[in-house]
Amino acid sequence: MKQITVPVLAAIAKILSGATLRWVDCEPDTCQRIYFANHTSHLDALVLWSSLPKNIRALTRPVAAVDYWQGGPIRRYMATVFDVLLIDRKKIKVHNSPIDMMIREIGNSKSLIVFPEGGRNVTGEMREFKSGLFHLAKKRPDLELIPVYIDNLNRVMPKGEFLPVPLLSCITIGAPIFLESGESKAVFLGKARNAVLKLKEA
User: I need a labelling partner for 160 at 20 to 30 A (CA). Which of 27, 39, 85, 152 fits?
Assistant: First the structure.
């Protein structure tokens, strides 16, 4: 049943968002990656995931907040179908941090979709990145860190709305970055944020 539901829901998400996908100085690949993007809508994770080629989707898990995706039977079902890795931001523990959970869940084959701003940005100006991406890069320096800029989804799924409004949106995927030896957290996070911002004009 899940094998049937996934492609159907993926197609619906792409149709409703009108999403087009562009690869800039980067090629689709099934190698392990962390796709990190700006965050303006609850649809971000699902539309980005749905827009990836099928063979990459099968190896990629969106990361999202448990408080939203457990808020009702439809959201819970969709989180299960899309294999969303749910993070409980209210129950973060030192011995089982979200970073440790992500590292454990991806193993040696899976990729992730993350949103370093933390919560959604509704002002139109991307916020500073939180430290999670830095710690992921530090613990798994072998992973390709892929910047993604998502345009227009805040208008496809405005804050407070339950159903999306059909509009055109664009997803731009850029060249990988890595944590350089000796690079500080502040410098790395600034570099990562700028990598996403540059895609806005690409």
Answer: 85
Q: Is 160 left (phi over 0), alpha (psi -120 to 50) or beta?
A: left
Distance from C-alpha of 114 to C-alpha of 105, rounded to nearest angstrom: 14
pLDDT band at residue 75, thresholds of 50, 70 and 90?
confident
Query: Which residue, among 92, 69, 93, has the nearest Cα to 79 in the 3D structure?
Result: 69
Q: Are 148 and 172 in contact (CB under 8 A)?
A: yes
H-type helices in the chain, by residue range?
Answer: 2-17, 44-51, 54-57, 66-69, 73-81, 98-106, 132-139, 153-156, 185-199
Domain boundaries, the chain: 2-199
What band does 78 get if pLDDT is binned at 50, 70 and 90? confident
We find that the CATH architecture of domain 2-199 is 3-Layer(aba) Sandwich (3.40)
More confident residue, 44 or 116: 116
| CA 188 – CA 193 distance, rounded (Å) | 9
pLDDT recorded at residue 152: 67
**Tens-place pLDDT, residues 9-54:** 666 666 665 678 999 999 999 999 999 999 887 778 888 988 899 8
9 close to 82: Cβ distance less than 8 angstroms = yes
Edge-to-edge strands, sheet with 19-23 = 19-23, 169-173, 144-151, 33-37, 111-114, 60-65, 85-87
